[in-house]
Amino acid sequence: MSDYKKIVVGTDGSKSSMLAVERAAGIAAAFNATLIIGCAYYETSEDASKTLRQDSVTVLGDDPAYKNLESASAAAQEKGATNIETVVKPGTPVEALMSIVNEAQADLLVVGNRGINTLTGRLLGSVPADVARQSQCDVMIVHTVN
């Protein structure tokens, strides 16, 4: 296994996403890697309603997104991550995560498993399944929900 230098994790403020942040932070601490925590948001409620997938928490506006990142950054520090960056991106969670991964040239993307085993997830796709298919880097899907 190669060393991870840049690790991306997404948060929407949910308990599930915070568990993924904590796992990513532990890995970042172990590899002395940069941890990049991202949060997607919808600019309008109309934008949010256009998505077919309703398996993720909807973050409306960048103010809640920045608050989510503050909480996630504090949790990551508690798990030993020292080099933490935060990024807010408009769009769907998948679009935002893929943009962050590609811009950062990340080595690892960490996501929770929420939605992957739901009926909607099986029919329409889920954030973890979609990013795993699209990502050019390693993807770790953390078991965060049953």
TrEMBL record:
Limits of the UspA domain: 4-143
Gene3D superfamilies named among the record's database cross-references: HUPs (3.40.50.620)
Domain of life of the source: Bacteria
InterPro entries cross-referenced by the UniProt entry: Rossmann-like_a/b/a_fold, Universal_stress_UspA, UspA
Pfam family, one: Usp
Family to which the UniProt record says this protein belongs: Belongs to the universal stress protein A family.
Protein name as it appears in the record: Universal stress family protein
